[in-house]
Write a structure and sequence with these properties.
Helices cover about 50% and strands about 5% of the residues. The protein is mainly α. The strands form 3 sheets. It has a 3-stranded antiparallel beta sheet, with helices on one face. The N terminus and C terminus are likely disordered.
């Protein structure tokens, strides 16, 4: 596995994008990610249908029409690219820059999209598609616009009660969730999914590096010895030099060790989401966010997150939080002993629904007034510090005149902690002898 070191080309371990050749032996599919996670939603594989002579002829005619249309589009795009290249060279010459820079400014962009919530209109289209398309062969199924017209003209779907609407929305959400986080049914499907998704991620990270100047790297490996996708790494620009120059580790060595560790773990989804692992993940996420929001305070020592005394932290520094899951007490993740609760907290930290916030000056002032009023009423705010174990006992002072003095012998032994002279003293005869001794 080798990566390039070109400043204009991202570091990529090329073996991670190798093509999948054929289907694996049956024994490998028996050890797929699906078999390791029984009970989890499974993304159904696409099944191929056998066609008769008439259907094959219709498919051939449709394919020829698509090829002709695609060729016309390709010719038009080629003409546009030729004109664009001429214009790029003119701009580069006018502004004394390389044409490559102009191309990056043109192509290095991403259209950001926020995920939309499931709508009733999409749920009804899904229901209609199941009704009219389930028995039709591929190539003859109704398209989206036709399905939308059918829904608009169907009185049964336009006059639904609230319970039925919610049920259709729930089915749509479940379908979307299965497509997003459902497990792949075979190792072949999992490997192709990995390759396609990583290729998309590589392009997004490299475009982001061009636009913003960031450095990013990632290591990806399989989780089982029977998985078909190879271990791979990726880095923008020369980021992998960091691992070699500072950490003294090559990316190939890191990915090999990571692959060995992951295959020895052999953990499915349930094992990875154990109570102990999710407690650790939640604690790391909370500490990371808290460290980020408090680093601007410029304290001599870093402020440690202590849940028992968080009110004192809030009182002194004006740090608060938003989005803590309902029904879960605000405490250390290690004190949460329910799997469902710690999963809710871990997921809230991951998707940023929980976050640390800096209070405004007005909010901080009002909070301090409330805490002062509680203290004046005799309430203890936070957990008081534990007293010394020898509280109430008289302790010896170091500079007390009445304290017992050490004896002369003790003082003399302390003063002679280092020898006064060397054990062996070189004589003048030895210093003057410059020859080699035999």
């Amino acid at each position: 596995m080798e990566g390039t070191r070109d400043a204009a080309v991202p570091d990529v371990c090329r073996s991670g994008l190798s093509a999948v050749a054929g289907d694996p032996p049956p024994a490998l599919n028996d050890a797929s990610w699906k078999s390791w996670n029984p009970g989890k939603p499974v993304i159904p594989p696409r099944s191929s249908e056998k066609l008769d002579a008439v259907q094959r002829a219709a498919r051939k005619v449709a394919a020829e029409q698509r090829r002709a249309k695609q060729q016309a589009i390709s010719d038009a795009v080629a003409e546009l690219l030729e004109e664009q290249e001429t214009r790029i060279n003119e701009i580069a010459k006018a502004h004394s820059v390389l044409p490559e820079k102009v191309r990056l400014l043109i192509t290095g962009e991403t259209h950001y999209r926020k995920r939309r919530e499931e709508s009733l209109a999409n749920a009804l289209v899904r229901i209609k598609a199941r009704q009219v398309n389930s028995d039709l062969p591929c190539g003859q199924k109704f398209q989206l616009k036709e399905l939308q017209e059918m829904v608009a003209n169907d009185p049964d779907l336009q006059n639904l009660d609230e319970e039925t609407k919610q049920r259709y929305l729930g089915e749509l959400k479940e379908s979307h969730s299965c497509k997003a986080i459902g497990v792949r049914s075979t190792n072949t499907a999992a490997s192709r999914d990995v390759q396609a998704t990583l290729k998309k991620i590589y392009g997004e990270l490299q475009a982001l590096a061009y636009r913003t100047g960031i450095y990013a790297c990632m290591f990806v490996t399989r989780g089982h010895v029977y998985d078909m996708h190879a271990a791979t790494w990726f880095g923008t620009d020369n980021i992998m030099d960091f691992w070699e120059d500072r950490m003294k580790l090559s990316p190939d060595y890191i990915i090999k060790q990571l692959e060995l560790w992951a295959c020895n773990e052999e953990k499915n989804i349930e094992a990875r989401d154990s109570l102990e692992n999710m407690q650790k993940q939640a604690k790391n996420g909370l500490d990371s966010g808290f460290s980020s929001i408090t680093k601007h305070l410029r304290q001599e020592k870093a402020i440690r997150l202590r849940f028992a005394n968080f009110e004192q932290i809030k009182y002194k520094f004006g740090i608060s939080y938003e989005g803590w899951p309902d029904g879960i007490p605000f405490s250390s993740p290690y004190k949460i002993q329910t799997v469902d609760e710690i999963r809710r907290l871990r997921d809230a930290i991951r998707d940023d629904s929980f976050r640390w916030v800096k209070m405004t000056a007005t909010q901080h002032h009002e909070y301090r007034k409330q805490v002062d009023a509680r203290r004046e009423a005799g309430e203890t705010v936070g957990v008081p510090r534990q007293g010394r174990s020898d509280k109430g006992k008289k302790r010896k002072a170091l500079n007390d005149e009445n304290a017992p003095q050490a004896s002369k012998k003790t003082r003399r032994s302390r003063a002679q902690t280092t020898p006064k002279s060397r054990e062996i003293i070189t004589t003048s005869d030895e210093e003057s002898d410059g020859g080699e001794r035999v």
